[in-house]
Write a structure and sequence with these properties.
The complex is a heterodimer of chains A (241) and B (403).
Chain A: E1 3-14, E2 20-31, E3 35-38, H1 46-53, E4 61-67, E5 75-76, H2 77-82, H3 86-96, E6 97-100, H4 112-116, H5 118-122, H6 130-137, H7 153-166, E7 171-175, H8 183-200, E8 203-207, H9 211-216, E9 220-229, E10 234-240
Parallel strand pairs in A: 2-10, 3-8, 3-9, 6-7, 7-8
Antiparallel strand pairs in A: 1-2, 1-4, 4-5, 9-10
Chain B: H1 2-17, H2 19-56, E1 62-65, E2 71-72, H3 73-80, E3 85-91, E4 98-102, E5 110-116, E6 136-139, H4 141-147, E7 154-163, E8 166-179, E9 189-192, H5 194-204, E10 225-226, E11 228-233, H6 239-248, E12 253-254, H7 257-299, H8 301-309, H9 314-351, H10 366-392
Parallel strand pairs in B: 5-9, 6-8
Antiparallel strand pairs in B: 1-11, 1-12, 2-10, 3-11, 4-5, 4-7, 6-9, 7-8
Helix pairs in contact in B: 1-2, 1-9, 2-7, 2-9, 7-10, 9-10
The chains are: A alpha/beta (241), B alpha+beta (403).
């Protein structure tokens, strides 16, 4: 197997009023096409880690942050952050990444079809029926022409997954994608998503506090551990392989 | 390239999705711009009418000498060489510059003034005619009516003098080369070449004029001087400068400079007032649109973050509010033009009754509409800069989890 992420000694600090928060990653290596679950209580830094992995949040320190898209040379993401090369990171996200937020993240002024097609359009990919295929598997075909405002929460999450997968990225990152859904809808959606993840062959990294989901679908969990530092002034959260 | 097109199309989708917000911006712009256009239209209309009546009358451009002096050929050459001079010609002594005219088609003799003229005479500018010569003259309208002649007619002229204690009279033929507009000169007169005037003056002075075969004393030498002149500035704007120049040379002159200055200063003062109002209005509009775009950027933080997330470069994000601002500018300008055109028609219908045909109280040239659009675009771009700076600072992870 070949790695897609290789992270070493990464630190991200978030100062807040009162207690500070520090995310520490001694070492994480994620293999291509692996399914990873981040498990932990709310506020333990899952979203922060996902944003770092998604290359939208700059780590304060990074001994190594290498991203290796399938069949391509390793890319030094840490160096791109140091150089503040936002456009390089943007290009990487555009091509290799699909991101699903806890709620929505759809553009309210585009139809569901245009939302799903957004990354494909940005990449100049031709219309090849991918959008329809995804919509069919995720059961939102009849909503393609609607604006997201008219959809239920579950339908919006289905559309968000379709958008994250439409341009056949290397990685799909999902931040508690089913947290705002009822358990039955959540299970249905995740079932369809896992089917697509396997079909397309992407690396899937999801944060979830919903244990049931994780056991059901052969995810590998990263080990999370929190402790107080400096007499309670800092909370340090560690994720490890 | 395609990323540009994508931004334009996304910005447009958002703009039309939030059409009620967009309509507010557009109306806000039209509400500032339309009154400015009406104000400028009225200023431009009034000033244009005043300037037209000034510049249509060549008399307003004339600079007349007060009293008489001695002007040499060199003096005329130096004046003629000045760029602000449209026309200058020497006058001979007034008393010598008369002639009696008679035609076959009128029963009486018409005494007429002789006015020195030549190519480029502003008084003859709009009357077609053959060039003047020793025997070709242009009649004033009054003279032509009294003599009952048309261009091309032959007329008889006669001059009289007291010479050597005897009364002498010469008669000679002239051809009517053209007839001046009634407005050019009110009294019976003949616009003639300087040569004919000099011939008449020489005859009256008792000298011989070989060109006409008139006997007398020896002709005048080459160094001749003239008591007066006819002088016209190229435009009303140059009258004051030219008269100042002559005053500096010690000449006493009379002009319409005061009347012209009044119109010009009204134009200047109205322009200053207009520009103060226009600049205040445009700054106000820029700030209000800029503040709205700024607030909009905050409001749309999450959507802009999503665009960053899917890989739009920060430059593209700046263009997002910029394009929306341009949409507002163009549509607001269109709205203002429509409102202006309606108000222009109303104003001209209400106030235009005393004007001549073809004149309006309020009107604008196509270039003014273009200038209004250009100004609006500049104001909108300044506003977009405010919004864009805000948008560019959005980190992709910033607004993603805002509710």
């Amino acid at each position: 197997m070949s790695a897609i992420y290789h992270l070493k000694e990464i630190v991200k600090t978030r100062a807040t009023n009162g207690t500070g928060f520090r995310l520490v990653i001694p070492s994480i290596r994620i293999e291509d096409r692996e399914a990873i679950a981040l498990v932990g209580y709310s506020g333990c830094g899952k979203s922060t880690l996902l944003d770092v992995l998604a290359m939208i949040l700059r780590p304060d320190e990074a001994a190594r942050f290498t991203f290796i898209p399938r069949g391509e040379n390793p890319i030094d993401v840490a160096a791109a952050w140091t150089k503040r090369d936002q456009n390089r990171l943007g290009d990487l996200r555009k091509k290799h990444l699909g991101y699903v937020l806890q709620t929505g993240g759809l553009l309210p002024y585009l139809t569901v079809r245009d939302n799903i097609n957004l990354s494909r359009r940005l990449l100049g990919m031709p219309e090849d029926g991918s959008v329809e295929h995804l919509a069919k598997v995720l059961e939102i075909q009849r909503h393609l022409g609607k604006l997201p405002g008219l959809l239920s929460a579950g339908e919006r999450q289905r559309a968000a997954f379709a958008r994250a997968l439409a341009h056949r990225p290397s990685i799909v990152i999902a931040d508690e994608p089913t947290a705002s859904l009822d358990p039955i809808t959540a299970r249905k959606i995740m079932g369809a998503v896992m089917e697509l993840v396997k079909e397309i062959g992407v690396t899937f990294i999801a944060a979830s506090h919903d244990w049931a989901q994780i056991y059901k679908h052969d995810f590998r969990s990263l080990h999370q551990d929190s402790r107080e530092r400096d007499g309670g002034r800092w909370i340090e959260s560690t994720f490890k392989d | 390239m395609s990323s540009w097109r994508n931004i334009v199309s996304l910005a447009y989708s958002d703009y039309s999705h939030e059409w009620h917000m967009s309509a507010c911006f557009i109306l806000g712009l039209a509400a500032v711009l339309a009154p400015l256009m009406v104000l400028f239209g009225v200023k431009f209309g009034i000033i244009t009418n005043m300037m037209t009546s000034l510049s249509e009358d060549p008399g307003k451009r004339e600079i007349r000498p007060l009293g008489s002096s001695r002007y040499t050929a060199e003096w005329f050459a130096s004046v003629r060489a000045r760029p602000e001079v449209a026309f200058v010609v020497p006058r001979t002594r007034t008393l010598a510059a008369t002639v009696e005219l008679r035609s076959r088609s009128a029963p009486f003799i018409v005494p007429a003034e002789l006015i020195p003229s030549g190519e480029g005479d502003p008084l003859l500018a709009s009357s077609p005619q053959k060039p003047l010569g020793l025997r070709h003259i242009v009649l004033s309208d009054a003279a032509a009516r009294k003599l009952n002649v048309a261009p091309g007619a032959d007329i008889e002229a006669s001059l009289a003098r007291q010479y050597g204690g005897q009364r002498e009279r010469v008669e000679f033929k002239l051809e009517v080369a053209g007839i001046a507009r009634p407005a050019a000169f009110a009294r019976p007169a003949a616009f003639t070449s300087l040569e004919l005037l000099l011939a008449a003056e020489s005859f009256r002075d008792g000298r011989a004029v070989p060109e006409f075969g008139w006997a007398g004393g020896p002709p005048v030498g080459a160094e001749r001087s003239y008591p007066s002149y006819r002088l016209y500035a190229r435009s009303v704007y140059e009258v004051a400068g030219l008269s100042q120049l002559l005053s500096d040379q010690g000449e006493k002159v009379k002009t319409n400079a005061d009347e012209i200055e009044t119109v010009l200063s009204v134009d200047r003062n109205l322009s200053i007032v207009f520009w103060i109002i226009a600049i205040a209005g445009m700054i106000g509009f820029s700030l209000s649109l800029g503040a709205s775009l700024w607030a909009n950027t905050d409001r749309k933080r999450r959507e802009l973050s999503v665009l960053r997330l899917v890989g739009f470069a920060s430059g593209g994000i700046v263009l997002f509010p910029a394009f929306q601002s341009l949409f507002t500018a163009v549509l607001g300008w269109l709205g203002a033009v429509l409102v202006y055109l309606v108000l222009e028609a109303v104003i001209n219908a209400l106030l235009g009754s005393h004007l001549e045909a073809g004149q309006s109280v309020c009107f604008l040239l196509p270039s003014h509409f273009a200038a209004a659009l250009a100004l609006t675009l500049v104001a909108a771009l300044i506003a977009a800069l405010l919004g864009g700076l805000r948008a560019a600072r959005i980190e992709p992870s910033d607004g993603l989890r805002d509710i």
